[in-house]
Design a protein that fits this description.
This protein has 124 residues and is an alpha+beta fold. It has one domain. It has 3 helices and 6 strands, in the order E-E-E-E-H-H-H-E-E. The chain has helices at residues 62-68, 70-76, 88-97, and strands at residues 8-15, 20-27, 31-46, 53-60, 101-109, 112-123. The chain has a 6-stranded antiparallel sheet. A hairpin with a 4-residue loop joins strand 1 (8-15) and strand 2. The longest helix is centred in the last third of the chain and has 10 residues, at 88-97. The protein is elongated.
């Protein structure tokens, strides 16, 4: 993932029909990498700014996901986001049973957040 460190986010696209999120980032003068998160379940982005710079994408564990996003999950639960569930254990079980991974997106500047998806690919 070294080519994404300090890369500029040129664009991202969320495809709900095919359940994928694609980011195009630029590093080293006009060199680009496509980052493809496939089969996503949920995502949350903050601070989408023109000229956003990625610092890193790190995989976290599902228990961390729940702890780090407790306030967001509590706030959105009544709106059936990211799904309809009775207790947080139901959500964790669903995520684990469906083999979703927790990818945390860190920024040096701008867009940051996370994606729950079944995998991520980096294509030059």
């Amino acid at each position: 993932m070294s080519k994404i460190h300090d890369s500029k986010i040129l664009k991202y696209q969320i495809d709900f029909e095919y359940s994928k999120i694609e980011m195009i980032v630029e590093y080293d003068q006009d060199e680009q990498v496509k980052i493809l998160f496939k089969d996503f379940f949920a995502f949350h982005f903050e601070n989408q700014l023109f000229g956003s710079i990625l610092f890193d994408i790190v995989e976290g564990d599902i228990d961390s996901f729940v702890l780090e996003n407790k306030e967001l999950l509590d706030k959105e639960k009544d709106y059936l986001w990211p799904m309809d569930y009775e207790c947080v254990e139901d959500l964790i079980n669903y995520i684990e049973e469906n083999s979703y991974h927790y990818y945390k997106i860190y920024a040096s500047y701008g867009l940051n957040g996370w994606i729950l998806s079944k995998g991520v690919l980096f294509e030059e």
